[in-house]
Amino acid sequence: MDDQSLIRKAQGGDANSFAELLDLHYDTIYRFAWKWCGHKANAEDIAQLACIKLASSLKQFRFQSAFTSWLYRLVISCAQDWQRSQARHDHDEMPAVEHAGEFSPAEDRIYLTQLLERLSELGEGMKETALLVHAEGMSHAEAGVVLGVSESTISWRLHTIRKHMSKSEARTSGSL
Amino acid sequence: MKPKSYETLLKETAPPAPDGQARVLAKRAALAEFARVNADEVAPEKIETGFFQGLLGALRLSRDHKSHGSDVMGWNARSKMFAGAASVCLAVVGFAVVWPMIRDGNSTRLLEKEPTGLLVPEPVRSETGEAAATASPTQPIETPVSNAQAKIEEQKAASRVDIKVPERDSLAADRKKEDEELVPSQVVQLGRDEVSRQVSQKDASIVDSITAQDIAKLPDSSASEALQRLPPGSVNGASSPAPTAAQPSEGDDQLQEVITTGRRADRRAVSPHKGVGAPKVNSGGSVAGLFYSPVANEPAPALPPPEGRDKFEHFDSNAVKQVADDPVSTFSADVDTSSYSFIRKQLNAGVLPQKDAVRAEEMINYFDYSWPAAESRERPFRPTVVVSDSPWGKGRKLVHIGIKGYELDARQRPDANLVMLLDVSGSMSSPDKLPLVKESMRLMVNGLKPTDTVAIVVYAGAAGTVLPPTRVGEKEKILAALDSLQSGGSTAGAEGIELAYQLAERSFRKEGVNRILLCTDGDFNVGIDNTNELKGFVERKREKGIFLSVLGFGQGNYRDELAQALAQNGNGVAAYIDTLSEAQKVLVQEAGSSLFTIAKDVKLQVEFNPSTVAEYRLVGYETRALKREDFNNDAVDAGDVGSGHSVTAIYEITPVGAEARMVEPNRYSKKSEKPAVATSNAGEYGFLKIRYKLPESSKSQLIEQPIRIGADNHAGAIARDVQFSTAVAGFAQLLRGGQYTGTLSFDDVIKQGLAARGDDPFGYRNEFVQLVRRAQSARGM
Q1: Which B residues, 300 through 329, put their C-beta within 8 Å of a C-beta on chain A?
Q2: Is the separation of the CB atoms in B386 and B368 below 8 Å?
Q3: Cα–chain-centroid distance for residue B202?
Q4: What 8-state DSSP symbol labels residue B675?
Q5: How far apart are the C-alpha atoms of A16 and A47, rounded to whole Å?
Q6: Alpha helices in B170-250 (DSSP H)
Q7: Which residues pair with B708 in a beta bridge?
Q8: Nearest residue of B to residue A99 by CA position?
Q9: Which residue among B22, B498, B501, B616 is least enclosed by CB atoms within 10 Å?
């Protein structure tokens, strides 16, 4: 069954279809959440939040955009809510960097965590923009739909990010 | 190993596989929620609206005010009936979802008045005895909402409460203990009750925001409503009977505290969707689609002015150069002053500015000096060169090069065709932004000639012409248009800048000055998002004779580097306006220089004489450095000088033979070797060349003047101004870290500044001394 009919059935209250939909998309949700925060347990939390939210808000999806765009939007919202709740707990310490799994070398994950932090510092929406375009391979226009900004805003953000990154890269390599 | 590029890192860093159990739990929780939501569809009809008040009371109930529980007992009994209709699992999980919200939500409810967009950020508070700080959701107050909405709210609230029924009955017992007992094993495994709490708080707001037509409205506007939040007092006052009334004992103080902490929490969150996250209890997926409460689209909350996000181009201070290696120094004139006013703003707030914000030349050029003006428009500069002892380097000298642009008198001023391009996005609403812009523009209009024209273009969510080109003779019309401006809405891609240029072209004055004044708080989302594209656009329009000046306002998000770049590309000034008196200075007293260019592409080049000067260092102008060969290349753009502008550059030099050399001479270079030129010009430290183009010309002209060794016996006003600019240069270098200023202290700067104040009719120099004092105390902290 394709996404669309699954969604329609789930919207009609069919729990089986909804379960199937979850199965289909849990990995996407989790993967994006992980790249967003760079931490497994946190990503699972976010993914769970997103699944619950998906349950409560699926009816609001009206097929006006691609389901995945809508889903990314939802995951980003959840991730941001989650982050707010973390901030509220005054957890300033960094999550411990996880042990190297079979997927990527540990240092890459450390770099990624640092990178995510720097991206967040660049301003609102910067991290999300970079993730959608670079990690998820979306076009600027698609990312624009997800984030609710114009395509050119996405381009501008990426340009800004690139500029900052090349600047800080230059600075690090200069100091070595 | 070279670290991977950030794109690769983002793309290729693979997440660890999700935990199978986490996946199962997530699915289970989602299915339970799904079942709950679908059960809600049926449930609401059973509830009588008469119980609505009691419901709210129940929601609002705190541990300390259980008496309200009796109000809802009857309803509770009824609601059990349809609670039972849902599966056991559903009820239990649903409880787990709602319970934390109830538990946390009671004691600190905040009010939210929907249509005005008043949103209070999520509060933070710690509950004693609990390790984790728990947060309470805000409580919307329905007063002004339509009946339909109220009804829906009831239904939603009702459907929510039915799930928590089993839990409410057990309230009498020790809640904590009950909690543990009641929470089903799967939820215990979750161990993340905030996860579920999050959902229950926010699903409606999220849901509302996600539909496609809303998407466009969300993100960028987060800051825009920030300042429209009512102060805590009015929050309280505007409220209806709700939460605080239920807790008289906690009253204002509590509310105040919550709001304060809420801000803190909000500041931490770096998300563009503040509004989405603003928690609301009026959730309930099924309903949100039926209507759109204004709040759902309202961006929300209260992002306090962001701090420390002002962007400055990084640069390193000019280094000491050896004349033997590099005798020629070339740079572009810079008449901007924004660095000084930005620093003033920071220091007045008790903060030392970031180093990159300190540009010595802009601080020096902020002040007016009595360098003699040129006599004719055709030869608009007469350089003044003064050599004095360096106050911070024994044995070293300071070479002042002062030029003052020819001053057009009012009769000679060409007509001006000005287009104000004003940012009126929501972020401009603080008093140091749009209101200051309006006042500043009003001042400027009052100083213009009746034959000048002014047009106003605004940009925010959309660009629009507020006022077509209008003669200043009809001043009332212009002032009325200015008055009508209001900030609001988000800054979205707009055609602002193109529209402004169109208007300027429409009323183009061939003989006059055509200029766009961009007033902004740093958000340059004026329709062309790509910075380089924007610069190119401005540059092309410059060729057509329309110039651009940038007036910066506000703080927190100020993008100085872009303002500078745009103004430089647009042959304009970049000024930073922090107060009305600064507006007065830039737009009225110096209107001539800000608006009427007398020379463009002004470049300075100094060649030092190796037989008399061992080392030199240019103070400031780091961002204006040019290559030696650029000096004679008319295609290379440089700074512009307006009517009456003064430009001052200071070199610190070490004469040959002085003890104070910073760099040791080379051991192996021949000491006897001296360039032939040097012998014939032994009385000169160097040679100054200035290149400029007249405003309407594209071919540069040259002014030359030697820097004579005996040029240090000036007296009177010039000597005093030299001393004052030296003090400013010393201050700027101290703020940048005092790399080359030896033992110079703020006290020394204050002394020099005080001694050289002179008449100081506008008080700028006095203010400078005050600023140094502030810097002194800011550093002490």
Answers
A1: 309, 314
A2: no
A3: 30
A4: -
A5: 20
A6: 175-182, 185-190, 193-210, 212-215, 232-237, 243-246
A7: B684
A8: B16
A9: B498
Q: How many degrees, rounded to 5, is the angle at CA B44 between CA B41 and CA B50?
A: 170
Q: Do B195 and A34 touch (CB under 8 A)?
A: no
Residues B424, B672 contacting (CB under 8 angstroms): no
Q: What does the CA dihedral B110, B115, B121, B124 come to, rounded to 10 degrees?
A: 20
Residues 6+ apart with CB under 8 A from B665: B614, B671
Distance of CA B560 to the CA centre of its chain: 9
One-letter amino acid at B396 equals: R
Nearest Cα to B684, choosing from B325, B385, B321?
B385
Given a contact cutoff of 8 angstroms between Cβ atoms, the answer to whether B272 and A128 are in contact is: yes
d(CA B310, CA B358) in angstroms, rounded, equals: 13
Question: Residue A109 is encoded by which pair of tokens?
Answer: 């994950």
At B269 the three-state DSSP class reads coil
Q: B289 CA to chain A: closest CA distance, Å? A: 6
**How large is the ipTM?**
0.78
User: Which DSSP helix (H) or strand (E) runs through A79?
Assistant: helix A67-88
User: CA quadruple A24, A28, A30, A33: dihedral positive or negative?
Assistant: negative
Considering CB atoms only, which of A43, A70, A125 is closest to B15?
A43
Give just the sign of the alpha carbon dihedral B20, B24, B29, B34: positive
The number of C-alpha atoms within 13 Å of B15 and in the hemisphere containing its C-beta is 23
Query: How would you write the pLDDT of chain A (176 residues) with one tens digit per residue?
Result: 577 888 888 888 888 888 888 888 898 899 888 888 888 888 888 898 899 888 888 888 888 788 888 888 889 888 888 887 776 554 444 444 444 444 456 677 778 888 888 888 777 788 888 888 888 888 888 888 888 888 888 888 888 888 887 776 666 554 44
Q: What percent of chain A has pLDDT over 70?
A: 83
Q: Cα angle at B201 between B198 and B205, to 5 degrees?
A: 110
The stretches in chain B having pLDDT less than 70 are: 1-4, 40-309, 410-411, 461-463, 488-495, 523-530, 556-557, 592-594, 659-660, 669-680, 711-713, 781
**Cβ atoms of B121 and B278 closer than 8 Å:** yes
Query: CA-nearest residue of chain A to B190?
Result: A45
Give me the pLDDT at residue B728, please. 94
pLDDT at position B165 is 38
Element (H, E) at B12: helix B6-12
In whole angstroms, what is the distance from residue B588 CA to residue B572 CA?
16
Reduced to 3 states (helix: H, G, I; strand: E, B; else coil), residue B368 is coil
Closest CA to A47 of A63, A36, A33: A33
Collect contacts of B408-414 with beta carbons under 8 A, ≥24 apart. B408/B377, B408/B592, B408/B596, B408/B598, B408/B643, B408/B644, B410/B449, B412/B377, B413/B449, B413/B592, B413/B596, B413/B643, B414/B509, B414/B511, B414/B512, B414/B513, B414/B596
Query: B486 in contact with A at a CB cutoff of 8 Å?
Result: no
The terminus-to-terminus CA distance of chain A in angstroms comes to 56
Whether A97 has its CB under 8 Å from any CB of chain B: the answer is no
Q: Is A174 left (phi over 0), alpha (psi -120 to 50) or beta?
A: alpha
Q: Which tokens in the block code for residue B431?
A: 């008093």
Cα→Cα distances B575→B312, B419, B533, B593, Å: 14, 17, 22, 12
**Which structure tokens are listed for B112?**
């939210």
CA dist B595 and B588 (Å) reads 10
Angle, helices A151-175/A106-122, rounded to nearest 10 degrees: 120
d(CA B280, CA B428): 27
Report yes or no: B288 at the A interface, CB cutoff 8 Å.
yes
Cα of first residue to Cα of last residue in chain B, in angstroms, is 42
Question: Please, which residues have CB within 8 angstroms of residue B715's CB and are 6 or more apart in sequence?
Answer: none
